[in-house]
Amino acid sequence: MTIKTNDLTTRIRMGAITLSAAVLFCALPATAQMAGGGGGMQQSSPQAPAGQQPGAQQPGAQPGMMPGAPNSPQMMMDDMFVKKEIQGGMAQLQLGQLAQQKASSDDVKQYAAKMVQDHTKMSSILNQAAQQLHIKPSDKLDGKDKSLVKKLQTSSGQQFDEMYIEAMIKDHKEALKEFKSEAENGQNPSLKQFANQGAQMIQQHLQLAQQLAQAHNLPEDGKAKMKSGE
């Protein structure tokens, strides 16, 4: 079934399309309490062992971390998730802003605007989590995303639209795997909740990108143009 551009633009603008975002950002008040002093975390902490003052930090525990084995694989996974998704969010913002300026199709511009809006909110939560958990994320794009930005900066018209759409499919497929993995295997309950809700948003972004690909007669796997452009 062919999707008309006007129909797709309407879908992107619809309030229902932003529902998962509203759920995500309303469902995570505990993110602000991730630090060791947060009341929500203290209530769920196990009883202090005999001889240890209640609320005292366990030996080897990192400030702001959940009780548990220091530097455990799960905690390291939480750190890596926050760092990677903050970096990925920066890429989404730069790419979205670029697409709003350079895209030749209205539906691509509408999609890019949604990416900027949603990833701005998501990045705000992740940066707050990083601060509370004493994680220091990079403030620069990784090599892959930096290269993609440069390619898109030198592209225009239909070529730009196609490269951007296919990049969104590829990036959101990867992000979806990462969010699901954190939701299933992470240590911090608030991050796991964030990842679970965030996966729903990422899934929605992916579906919209695939619909864009269909509307622009592109493969929905996000491979063709990106491969030829590498």
Automatic annotation (TrEMBL):
Coiled coil spans: none
Positions of region (Disordered): 35-75, 208-230
Skewed-composition ranges (Basic and acidic residues): 218-230
InterPro entries referenced in this protein's UniProt entry, alphabetically: DUF4142, Ferritin-like
Signal peptide range: 1-32
Pfam families tied to this protein: DUF4142
Ranges for domain DUF4142: 78-212
UniProtKB keywords: Signal
Top-level taxon of origin: Bacteria
Composition-biased stretches (Low complexity): 42-69
PANTHER family named in the record: BLR2558 PROTEIN
Identification of the protein by name: Putative membrane protein
